[in-house]
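Bench notes, afternoon.
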Amino acid sequence: MKQLYATQRAMRNMRKAALQRGLIAILDVGTSKVACLILRFDGPERYRDSDGVGSMAGQSQFRIIGAATTKSRGMRFGEIDAMQETERAIRTAVQSAQKMAGVPVNHVIACLSGARPRSYGLEGAVDIHGEVVTDADIGRVLAACDMPDFGEGRETLHAHPINFTLDHRGGMADPRGHAGRRLSTDLHLLTVEGQVMQNLVHCIRRCDLELAGLASSAYVSGISALIEDELEMGAACIDMGGGSTGLSIFMKKHMIFADSVRLGGEHVTSDISMGLQVPGAMAERIKTFYGGVIATGVDDREMIEIKGDTGDWHHDRRTVTRAELIGIMRPRVEEILEDVRAQLDAAGFDSMPSKSIVLTGGASQIPGLESLASRILGHQVRMGRPMRVAGLPQSTTGPAFAASVGLALFAANPQDEWWDFDVPSVSYPARSIRRAIHWIKTNW
């Protein structure tokens, strides 16, 4: 655990140094695409003591001076499957973005979409030694949190203190400077498979880049796609990518739960490829131009011409109806949404005061998905696009770039985490662990 905190602190220090120089790159390594944004900061990094613990980033003082995407290679379920292929894709995206920006960049912040995330809700409490709460008291109360048994091979990706209670005053974002006797905290801990995380770190370093930060793509997608009221009152963000679908739940401007489904848009494409017996590239094109999940009366009459080059004239020159295509796509999309619904139910989403659901990610652009999702998930659903960054290049304004833009916001002003404080290395007895929302709805 000490080694993990040292690594995280080292990345934070590297990020601060990069921002002082005014340049940093954002790297979203997904199953279907690799996206790179290069940020130039107009002034020094703006940290204020008044921001408090866990302050949410608003419009940040940076400009996007370079942007590039390339087809992802060597990725499966949001995880690296072939190291050399993924390395080539990362190099292509970064070099193209640097060419557009006209400057070289050495430091990158990346996001992680697979790795089977798990959320834990932790609690801790300590007595205050002095008259007011200090940074040392914050460190002690974080060290007092229950530590769950993660199991072999898992590492902590995020550790956000999301609520402080001083004596009987709850819901405090930053208790430092307040007088009191007893300080307690609620902490959201997100763990991932360590090997998946280390593979991404190793791949980035093989590209001669320094890693200055790592975040969950489900987390950063929520930062960019949810509006202020949703972040405050409670909402779920569903980030539908190519190889996996990320789920994050926010409340009081903090992520309190995250999970993922190992299914995404590429599985829909694969179903089309097998169902229509066409190559994957053609199946992707058919999905993009003619796809949908809600059939209408005219779909039986709308014909889709399929051309091939197998040499079999009857196979290469045929047509299918759009209704047939929808019949292939809908079962897989329903499966993804049913799995998301099961995760929402397990997290206790129905107990939240607000039940907004936002769909984002490249695979969320299937026509009719909003209506189908609302029916299956049982709540009002809207489509989300990246927000809070002015002057985005036109190519990066769509739902597919929610994680990339959110990662830029995370880079500019990350929420405080466990390793931002001097946490004493004291062992505390572990107690029972409850999932995040179950204790959120009880304590808040």
